Structures are given as C-alpha cells and as structure tokens.
C-alpha cells in the first residue's frame, strides 16, 4: 500500500511538471505562487506552506526550491523583528511588515546576484500605500528607526504595491471584513457615500496605478457586491 501511494505521489508531481514547458517553469511558477500566498499570510504563520514544500522537495534535487526557502526564512525573520519592533508603542498595533530579500520574491530585482546574501543587501518592506493612510506615517518612521537598531548594516526600501490590507466595511444591511491587495484598498477608499461616483479614468488618475490594475480591482469590488457600474459609466457604492 505504501509503495503504491509513493508511486502515485511521484506520478502526480510528474503530471504537474508535464503541464509546464519545463521543470524550470514549474519551479518558477510554484515559487511565485508561494510568494503571493506568503504576502497574504496572517501573523507570519507559515506552517501549512512549510509542510507542503517539504513534501514537494522530496522529489527534486537539493536547492531546487531555493527561492521558496529564502522567502520562508524571510517570514521567520520578519516575525521575530516585528515582535521586537512593536515593543516601541509608537508603532501601531495594526501595522506589520514583511522584510523581503527583494530578488527572491515575485517582482524582485532581476539585477540582484542570486548567490549573494551578503550583509550589504538592500532589503524591502512590503506594506500598503502609506500616502492613503497618513496615520501610519509615524509607525513607518519608527519601524525604520527600530529596524536600523537591529540591522545596522541593512537598508530598507518600502514597496507600496505589495502586501495586504485588512478592511472592515460597514453598510446599512451588512458588514464585510476582507483581506485585499493595496490597490483594492486605495480604490474603495475613494467611496465614502453612495453619492460618490467616478469613471474608470477618474479613479485611475486619483489612485495613480495602471489601467489594468484599476479594471481588475473594480471587477473585484463588483463581485463583492460593494460597487456597481451605472449605464453612464460611473462606479458607485451599492448601499451606504
């Protein structure tokens, strides 16, 4: 029985790889997907993803999933640093960061040296767009100051477009609590009442993100039954 299960597992992995153009494409796709999942992780909890990765790694040579190992390591380091940094009460309890080794995450710097993890590496911090929430400016400045105390040789680069934002939306007939990407949070923040209405182009100009991202996030809010599109091409809240 055990032998049959092991063979079935190997066959499943082979089938997944065969669906990609190459092993390299499979590993890249898996690594990118893991990065997206980790950016949405709550409380730095990676246990489930670690278990999945360890099972998968049994079928591949060592270091095949180096990117995944480094991203998971980043989460572990971030968890410990975040706990230490929050001892400073000037950092909001709802403000948390993931310290990323930039090259290894989806959208990383392709000019970085894959084999160089030296002390002078620039690290990135993934969080929501701070311009939209000025109440977090003090937290950001304090976070950076406390980080420098712990990692004097490191530099931080803020990445507004990565991470997640937890929103609690309250309407007349319902309440919603959602974890969304920063772009989605920026867009919905424009709508205060049902009287607020914007065209797609007006939204693009206000939030300063690409047309494709605007369309994608407007579709998301429509599917959540939060926004609707009028016949005249204006988006507005379905209810106050």
Automatic annotation (TrEMBL):
PROSITE patterns (alphabetical): CULLIN_2
InterPro entries from the UniProt entry: ANAPC2, Cullin-like_AB, Cullin_homology, Cullin_homology_sf
Cullin family profile domain spans which residues?
A: 1-222
- Record-annotated membrane-spanning stretches: none
- Record-stated family: Belongs to the cullin family.
Annotated protein name in UniProt: Cullin family profile domain-containing protein
